[in-house]
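Regression test attached.
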Amino acid sequence: MAQPARTQDRVNDFVIKLANVNGTGSASANTLLMKSIFRMGVPVMGKNYFPSNIQGLPTWYEIRVTRDGYVARSGRVDLMVAMNAETYQKDVREVSPGGFLIFDSTWPRSTLLAREDITILGVPLARICNENFVGVRNRILMKNIMYAGVLAALLEIDLEVIRQLLTESYSKKPALVDANMKAVQLGHDYAKANLPCPLALCVERMDRTKGHVMIDGNTAAALGCVYAGATVAPWYPITPSTSLMDAFKSFCQKLRVDPETGKGRFAVIQAEDELSAIGMVLGANWNGARAFTATSGPGISLMNEFIGLGYYAEIPAVIFDVQRVGPSTGMPTRTQQCDLMLCAYASHGDTKHVLLFPSNPEECFYMAVQAFDLAERLQTPVFVLSDLDIGMNDWMCPELRWDDAYRPDRGKVLSREDLEALPKFHRYLDKDDDGVPYRTIPGVSARGAYFTRGSGHNQYGGYTEDAIEYQVVVDRLARKFKRARTMVPAPVIEATGTSSIGLVTIGSSRGAVNEARDILAKRGIPIDYMRIKAFPFTREVESFMASHEKIFVVEQNRDAQLRALLTLETDVPKTKLHSILHYNGLPMTSQGIVETVLAELGDAKRAAAGA
Amino acid sequence: MSFINKPKVRHPDLPKNPIGLTRRDYEGAMSTLCAGCGHDSVTASIIEAIWGLGLRPEQLAKFSGIGCSSKTTAYFASGAHGFNGVHGRMPSVVTGANAANKDLYCIGVSGDGDSLSIGFGQFAHAIRRNVNMLYLCENNGVYGLTKGQFSASADIGTKSKKGEENLQAPVDPCLAALSLGGTFIARSFSGDKEQLVPLIQAGLMHKGFAMIDVISPCVTFNDHVGSTKSYTFTREHYHEAVHADFIPPRQEITATYAEGEALPVEMHDGSRIVLRKLDSSYDPTHRGKAFEYLRTKLRRGEHVTGLIYCASSGPDMHAMSGTTDVPLNQLPYETLHPGAAGLAKVLKRYA
């Protein structure tokens, strides 16, 4: 077979896609491969495309080996490992010209599935497995680990790194290390003897992952909640947020159990539904604990009534919305940024909420802590809008750091001494003229007692149906929200100072946008960049939009929700904003952005750019 | 409702409880409910009960949902924090509040609509979790604030004020609580303060979910002939099976009980309930028998009242989840995370 010459430009720069069946242990093999490359100092990106199912449906894993450290999908598939007969036909088609495909050659494949422009390599994985391992389940698991060995030979992945990783994951079951390593070795040896190793695509040691970790956003967010001092965590299971609460519980069990008494300094409560979960969050925060919940779009829909109560009665709360594809049940295991509008104005009546937009697991960690501080300073629910891509995929991020000088900002809470010094406490009085009243915690002093209610109340905390009294309170709430602009994180702006074109984005779209900017810059089209980190929009957001003539708004939903929010909540003219939308449920690639920008800029620019 | 404010001047000889407070110190805002509303009698019993227990007002927290019953929390203990949440969701708010501070005495006041229709799920799951709270269901069989629709506790055959007959089976909160594993289940009548006050005291001191279904007639929409939740009907079909006397810790049992009639139940804090069986065939410590007894009496149209079932042991939510003895909202921040050095350790497996 013809093999393209090994060229430097494919080293540490290619995409592996692994097609498999869910419930067969392929996740361990895929993570092992990705982590090995990461340990060799080469930046990687991993994306898991899994079905909403427990066992038997197709699943794919994509590993992008990226020496330049890009974090988005490239849109290419250079090496397909086609382990699923059911999707084989589709998987063959997806390989980029000049690419490779590996299949299990234990059984013959139809010649109809061949392609002239790719190299197809057969490995009798099932046969080798059957000859070397006993037990059906074991053979299935080992077959997957075996392709990791095949790839190690083809891509020159260090076997010692693989052994080390296996030793770490099975530190308590050494027998499993040997069994797995045997499978890796078998795959490796077969490939060495029968396949053209190494391929033009291969891995070469680098030094670009030092000081970094591979972590998913839900785990990082959970860790952030631990460090924020959250103690009460009511929730209702929902994909893709479940692993956030699982991680929180597991961190607490490790870090917050008194070794003497065996008792825990946390309460994770699995509620009967999301309505109850958010009710518990409000009850706990009202009672002075830091409490949060994690959910996804359908959960937010159910929580709406209580969210309005939190807003109006001014109760802190932190809600993680790990967004998934809507509407309705949608595609629970696919990603989107589709809950911006839902969260920004959640609940009936006039309501507005603070939103934070983490762009990767690192920010999930830091923003989790920020969210609690903001919620308590502003006495209001705060949303952290992550998504499935950030939450459930492992991302390479700088190691998370902690400042031991940090203390939670509990906001304006009156102590017993404060209350005794006061002639009278009034819950909703704007004493400091900053829109934020003082609150008290139950159990502290009878002088701090007040009645929390979602019904009409005046600034003294009393029930009211009086027109003016009602308005005094809701107008102050509006002032408070305006003030939140000065407290939320400012956007990340990268501007040349000369470009009149801007790209605006949020959250996980960051990776694709950054790569698109690089591509466009190489073609002579420098574009300024703003990644918004929070709602309400800060002054910087407003001035970026004012200082650019044409602004592309990149987001992952059909209805341009970020653009809509910008037109509603800033002075930017609608005509300035051009949407680049991606909403098929897969994480974004840079391709679509580059193409749309070029098309929009018109022929003159394109000619100049040589496009 | 009344339009005359309570006098601010207090009589110097008002009786004081062990911590030196009078009943007036446990009052709240003036009621806006209809004159003669059963709920106001319940409020009076609550005030009497917490005054008698000698709790400081700030040791209490009051919770409610939406409806006439849910207004009650504003009418007692103005020195306690109150939380009037959304319709049917009071139990979740209490669950969160109790999770944050297990030392706070939580009183939830709900109604039949709030508990048995819109909030039936939360009612059931708070019982399952055995959240440490007193849950009062002011039950009048009718939606008052929306002017007289049947509620889920309306009996078959009962007639609305407009003459419409209810044909749907009622939900009995006591039977429901019994089948869900409730650990303290009682029924009383707003007009029977003698029975209700010790039940409220015992329920508050019970470590776990204490449910009292209080039949509390609606004078405006459900007190007519043909209604099975009117004052007259309730008085006629009222069957007290077990009377409970509440004895605080360290106080001697002074009342005299007939031989074989008294059944003392020890509470977690050393207080006791002495159950006086008015029907000797009844066993309030046996869930199955209690269930059967209630059903048999209900079939005869009788409402069994008193402490229907009481399990003195059984873990509450905190015991089940193994939380620390110090309330979670009082833990020093330093004890909640392992600092920068700990973070580096945690991250090792992700490197």
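Expected vs. actual: identical. Residues 1-6 of chain A have pLDDT under 50 and may be disordered.
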